[in-house]
TrEMBL record:
Its EC number is 1.6.5.-, 1.7.1.17. Binds 1 FMN per subunit. Belongs to the azoreductase type 1 family. FMN binds at residues 10, 16-18. Residues 3-202 form the Flavodoxin-like fold domain. SUPFAM superfamilies: Flavoproteins. Homodimer. It is an enzyme of class 1 (oxidoreductase). Its cofactor is FMN. This is FMN dependent NADH:quinone oxidoreductase. It catalyses: 2 a quinone + NADH + H(+) = 2 a 1,4-benzosemiquinone + NAD(+); N,N-dimethyl-1,4-phenylenediamine + anthranilate + 2 NAD(+) = 2-(4-dimethylaminophenyl)diazenylbenzoate + 2 NADH + 2 H(+). Also exhibits azoreductase activity. Catalyzes the reductive cleavage of the azo bond in aromatic azo compounds to the corresponding amines. Quinone reductase that provides resistance to thiol-specific stress caused by electrophilic quinones. It comes from Nonomuraea composti. Pfam families: Flavodoxin_2.
Length: 207
């Protein structure tokens, strides 16, 4: 029995295309994986902690082999809880709309909160970084309204999937599949949406 966590980066609720495609995925996943668990982490629900001065100082204290104290300890504990929630699943589904050629800032905030030493990564002076979130699988729903594959830079650039998939790889998640929905300003929305839903079901069945 697998545990799937859907981490959503869109604040648009029922109007969100990335969330709608993710629901197609989770519906198919539950239908084809009896007994499995699917939970939802809405990054906009107010539970994602900030990673400000206290947390940043705590991180450097941990890097140096120390133990955070006081306000720093509280900030660090919040980061640890968020990581533990994330790490308790073996499957991930991310719904990621494109914002300004990149990802929504709440998703970057999530990455900054959980990407901590001895949790998501360790680092060696000779061999560099090593991802610690191993043995897991991820699926990502990417959406955009203007940028699309094959369009020129006047329609934007893709720092959305390039950034996010590099983070997944860096964290140790090598098994990554994607669903894309990029109808562009002149494309066929219905055709693109149908293809995205079909792709979501296809991945979900064997995920």
């Amino acid at each position: 029995m697998s545990r799937l966590l859907h981490i959503s980066a869109s604040p648009r609720g029922a109007e969100s295309i990335s969330l709608a495609i993710a629901r197609t995925f989770t519906d198919e996943y539950l239908a084809t994986h009896p007994g499995s668990t699917v939970d939802h982490f809405d990054l906009w629900d107010g539970t994602l902690p900030e990673f400000g001065p206290a947390a940043a100082h705590a991180k450097m204290t941990v890097f140096g082999g120390g133990t955070p104290q006081g306000e720093q300890a509280q900030a660090w504990a919040a980061a640890v809880r968020t990581f533990e929630r994330f790490d308790s699943y073996d499957r991930y589904l991310f719904s990621v709309p494109m914002w300004n050629s990149g990802v929504p800032y709440k998703l970057k905030q999530f990455i900054d909160v959980v990407s901590q030493p001895a949790m998501v990564f360790d680092v060696h002076p000779e061999t560099g970084y090593r991802g610690l979130v191993t043995g897991k699988r991820a699926a990502v729903v990417y959406t955009s309204a203007v940028w699309g594959p094959g369009l020129g830079p006047e329609f934007g650039l893709d720092f959305q999937s390039t950034f996010f998939e590099e983070w997944l790889r860096w964290a140790g998640i090598a098994d990554v599949q994607s669903v894309r929905h990029h109808p562009t300003l002149t494309g066929s929305y219905e055709h693109e949406r149908k293809q995205a839903d079909e792709r979501a079901r296809e991945i979900a069945r064997t995920f």
